[in-house]
Design brief:
The complex is a heterodimer of chains A (about 180) and B (about 550). In chain A, about 40% of the residues lie in helices and about 20% in strands. Chain A is α/β, with parallel strands linked by helices. Chain A has two domains: about 30 residues; about 130 residues, Glutaredoxin (3-Layer(aba) Sandwich). Chain A has a five-stranded mixed β-sheet with strand order 5-4-3-6-7. The longest helix of chain A is centred in the first third of the chain and has 30 residues. In chain B, about 35% of the residues are buried. The C terminus of chain B is likely disordered. With about 550 residues, chain B is an alpha+beta fold. Classes of the chains: A alpha/beta (about 180), B alpha+beta (about 550). Chains A and B meet through helix 1, strand 1, helix 3 and helix 4 of A and helix 2, helix 5, strand 6, strand 7 and strand 15 of B.
């Protein structure tokens, strides 16, 4: 009798296991995208190295332990242009608090970016993604797209639209090291 | 759930129709039947027996052949519906509203319903994936539920069967023969000649061949499952890439979908056949259509990020130069980069003259590379031009400033500052195509002189590590089909009853005609009782198609 009971338990467990595995596969197939992996909130922000307009190299990993406000932009995009002065106003204050604003231009001609910077009197470092490598790495579709990266190097939020100054302040504060 | 103990003493699992060893009918249904149902050897299909828990109920649902056929039908019908109108992928739209509008405009009310029901992106819809998943589940569970008991009962079958089993076979005969022992020895020998595996057990013979044919359907299902696994793997990063990108001549760009690789486009070439070289083959066609393309080629250089460097750094090493032509992709590390598309004649450079308006005299010319303009162009003799503004895709003035609607140089405009010995403080001028604006009346002007164009290559990047898995799945599938289709599992039982009567019975899972032919051949050389095909008594009548059971 003991043997029979065992057999029954084994059958129940094995059937349940197989059904659960199959159900998990179906759920996975539905939720996974066919496309290249899209970075989501909670993922580790992939490291990169880009030079700014002055030729200084910046690595994301240089800012480990600090918050990074990573903003992808283009000169032709009006909302990108609109939030530039806000970032200019805020970047020094927040640098002292351990949050860096990094802006990445998506591979436009360098002179065009320089003209834009001079026109808007921007002084923060502007990284230049000449080969669109980092743009593809972060799978940027609409501009502007902003990633909030916390001191642990995790993406806490992806913002795919323009921001008001108050929103930028809130976002910067959210990734400030404690 | 107790076991069923047969009169022969063998313990059979609950739900067994025919005793696994001696073949005695155990269920009422089997006892009453004239010709016993030999599907799955009358074994206890697990799904038919335990119905206690919810897990067992789900299990039984998927184990059912009827449900399986139902799911197949649903998948077929759904797939067919998906082909009625173009899928989302082929529709030139990007927002939901545009899609809705497209389907309604082209296909009317039906199109609107088609869109609203989600058929426009059917193969990616959750319910289609669920259907496919259910199909896979059904295949797996139904197979496990059948192959295990079938295997067990074929393994356990005894040579001597009970007369009640023999009598219920479709092919059956009984009678007395003169020298039983001699006939049996002869029969054994003859059956072996016909490639049967013969087992004997005091006065009983079991001849069997091609049992492996019974596993055909399960091998086939295994192939299908391998195929599904391959398709599923495509969703996992690294297994499958299918991307497209545009790359301009002179541009160096990260390869979409292939992290760590950068491609430089050194030139796109579109060559047509000339009349002379192709007269013989294409002469008539050339006269008719004017030109026939000979080559689409992109000359590229492939670079790779150096070991240990980060994405985005300029720390690249050259891998190779290559000329991509149609069907001769650039290959590296599992990736293929194909020539796919092209665009001709995008503006590349613009050449201007700096002209004194009154004398129309040129102070020199300069060329602006639109993908890499400079800040200052020195014209010599104290004259220079500064670039104050660059608008690659000028689209009017917005908020008091020139506005570029994209980074593509479709309609370049500039603000130049002209510095000349006469006007060292400089004059400003806004220059767009066929348009010049001045804030104040200028003495000098920028005049357009010439433009150069460049081409853009459209490339497709593909990587498919699942291809061989799909191939293996297809191969196993075919092996299963062949195994089940071209061989038949045949068994012949001959035994001497207690009263000295000789019983003969035979069974096959298909192609009864050939089985009878083999029996007839056996009886030509060996003294055995006559038999009858009880389902098809007219023995001379050729076997009719239609008794093949694809599910067994």
């Amino acid at each position: 009798m003991v043997k029979k009971k065992n057999k029954k338990t084994i059958r129940l467990i094995s059937r349940t296991a197989l059904l659960l595995i199959l159900a998990a596969i179906i759920v996975y197939a539905i939720t996974s995208k066919d496309k290249v992996k899209v970075l989501a909130e909670g993922d580790k922000a992939p490291d990169f190295e880009l030079v700014d307009l002055e030729g200084n190299a910046h690595r994301l990993s240089d800012y480990k332990g600090q918050g990074v406000f990573l903003n992808f932009w283009g000169t032709w995009c009006p909302p990108c242009k609109k939030e530039m002065p806000y970032m200019e106003d805020l970047y020094k204050d927040f640098e002292a608090k351990g949050v860096h604003i990094l802006t990445v231009n998506v591979g436009e001609p360098k002179v065009k970016v320089e003209l834009f910077r001079d026109d808007m009197n921007l002084t923060f470092p502007m990284l230049w993604d000449k080969n669109k490598t980092v743009m593809d790495l972060y799978n940027i579709k609409p501009l502007p797209t902003t990633f909030l990266i916390n001191p642990e190097g995790k993406i806490t939020r992806v913002i795919k639209q323009g921001m008001t100054k108050q929103q930028i302040v809130d976002y910067l504060e959210s990734i400030q090291p404690k | 759930m107790s076991k069923i103990t047969c009169q022969c003493g063998h313990e059979n699992p609950y739900g067994t129709e025919l005793c696994e060893q001696c073949g005695r009918p155990l269920s009422e249904k089997a006892k009453e039947s004239d010709i016993v149902d030999m599907r799955y050897e009358g074994s206890s299909r697990r799904s038919q027996t335990y119905k206690s828990s919810i897990v067992d109920k789900i299990w039984n649902f998927f184990s059912s052949v009827k449900i399986g056929v139902g799911i197949i039908a649903a998948v077929l019908i759904a797939s067919a519906i998906g082909t009625v109108f173009p899928q989302k992928f082929y529709v030139p739209a990007s927002t939901d509203a545009e899609y809705a509008e497209y389907y309604e405009r082209l296909y009317g009310v039906v199109g609107k319903i088609y869109y609203q029901l989600g058929f426009y992106d059917m193969y990616n819809s959750w319910w289609f994936k669920v259907l496919i998943g259910m199909l896979a589940t059904s295949i797996i569970i139904a197979s496990i539920d059948r192959v295990v008991p079938l295997y067990k009962s074929l393994k356990k079958q005894r040579t001597r069967r009970h007369p009640s089993f023999m009598k219920r076979q479709r092919i059956y005969g009984e009678g007395t023969i003169e020298n039983t022992a001699e006939s049996f020895a002869k029969a054994e020998e003859e059956l072996k000649k016909m490639h049967y595996n013969v087992k004997t057990e005091n006065g009983a013979i079991l001849a069997e061949k091609h049992r492996f044919s019974r596993w055909g359907p399960y091998v086939n299902h295994t192939g299908l499952i391998i195929f599904f696994v391959g398709v599923l793997l495509r969703g996992i990063p690294g297994f499958y890439v299918d991307e497209a990108m545009w790359i301009r001549e002179g541009e160096t760009r990260n390869i979409v979908g292939a992290p760590g690789y950068v491609l430089e486009n050194k030139g796109f070439t579109l060559e047509n056949y000339t009349k002379e070289e192709a007269e013989e083959v294409f002469g008539a066609a050339l006269d008719k259509v004017g030109s026939i393309v000979k080559t689409y080629r992109t000359d590229v250089t492939l670079y790779k990020e150096k070991e240990g460097s980060l994405p985005g750094s300029d720390n690249l090493e050259k891998v190779e130069d290559y000329a991509i032509v149609v069907n001769k992709p650039l290959k590296f590390n599992g990736y293929n980069v194909f020539q796919m598309d092209y665009k001709l004649d995008e503006l590349k450079t613009m050449t201007f003259h700096l002209v004194e308006k009154s004398s129309e005299e040129s102070l020199g010319e300069f060329t602006v590379d639109l993908s890499n303009p400079e800040k200052k162009y020195d014209l010599g003799k104290g004259a220079s031009v500064n670039m104050l503004g660059f608008y690659p895709d000028y689209d009017g003035i917005k908020d008091g400033e020139p506005y570029s609607k994209s980074p593509v140089p479709n309609n370049p405009a500039f603000i130049f500052q002209m510095n000349t010995p006469e006007k060292p403080e400089g004059e400003k001028s806004f220059v767009a195509i066929r348009q010049t604006l001045e804030v104040e009346q200028n003495d000098y002007a920028i005049k357009f002189a010439a433009a150069e164009t460049r081409n853009i290559s459209g490339l497709t990047i593909r990587k498919d590590k699942t291809l061989y898995i799909l191939l293996l799945g297809g191969l196993v599938f075919m092996i299963g089909v062949i195994q089940g289709m071209y061989w038949q599992h045949r068994r012949i039982w001959i035994q001497e009853g207690a009263d000295g009567q000789v019983l003969i019975a035979a069974h096959t899972n298909k192609n009864w005609f050939s089985l009878r032919k083999e029996l007839d051949k056996l009886r030509e050389s060996t003294a055995l009782p006559a038999y009858k095909d009880r389902q098809d008594p007219e023995l001379d009548k050729p076997e009719q198609e239609g008794d093949e059971e694809i599910w067994t």
